[in-house]
Amino acid sequence: MKLIITLALLAVSYAHIIKSACDLLSIQDIIYQKEVLKKNVNDPYQMTIDYNTNTLFFSHSRANPKNNEDVFESAYLNLATNEYNIIPGILGGFSAAVDNNKHKVYLGGRNGIYEYDYETKRATHVNPNGYSIWQLFFKDKLYYTAYPQERVYTFEGGKSLIVPELKRTSAQLVALDNNYNMYFSNSSGLFCLNKSDKNIIQLGEYTINSFTADVNGNIYFSTPSAFYNIDNNQKVNKLVDLDDVFGLVVDGKNNFIYGTGDKIIRLSPTQNKCL
Ligand SMILES: *[C@@H]1O[C@H](CO)[C@@H](O)[C@H](O)[C@H]1NC(C)=O
Ligand SMILES: *[C@@H]1O[C@H](CO)[C@@H](O)[C@H](O)[C@H]1NC(C)=O
Question: How far apart are CA 47 and CA 54, in angstroms?
Fold first, then answer.
């Protein structure tokens, strides 16, 4: 009997899944419960949280009935009230970032950067004739990657500048830690540009589909099959294996929120053992 239980526990901890029937899973020895926050959103991607208003911004795709091509739209979900809306005024809304000090929400579209206005619930174009934005990340200023350039730029005072250290390298997604080390991904994997000596080192061959920083600036990323964090020594730790992940954010209470298929799911710690 004891042996059977031990084997069962081993099998369970290997799979990280405690009991799929009640949607629990374990991340670093904490049991989390899955809860669907939003259904019927196609490929929820490029998520970010405004911690001041507890609002999740993200993009999703929708087939254009005219030509059957996917169009991208920016949307928000208020995590306290569940209010959900598509954000008008933006061409091909694809990415989002928040300046939590100045309370500004930036959105990226097919022709540049937009600012979101909570009063009108619309986006306003702030760099006309801008590049097509792939991803936005806010740290000391707004950073972005552009498609098809695959380069990292900053946007400040209405001006876009390429990040000189990365001028010659392709970068699809970017993030900065609290020491301003810059992480970026391209089709070869994950790299870190050391802030002090400007060396670029490879941290692994991950297929990254999102970078995010929690409310304290700790860096996390997702691949289609797992969540990871990067610690202060630039060591990558795998947190959990999951299927079909599109993007990850961490809310103000350290819950994980991720996009998968046509859903947005929150993982929050629970005492529930589903017995
Ligand atoms: C990704 O970036 C690294 C580091 O700059 C570079 O060596 C590599 O060639 C890049 N990969 C691609 C596919 O451009
Ligand atoms: C970054 O560069 C500095 C200066 O060379 C070095 O002391 C530090 O260890 C480097 N950081 C990492 C994580 O390699």
Answer: 13
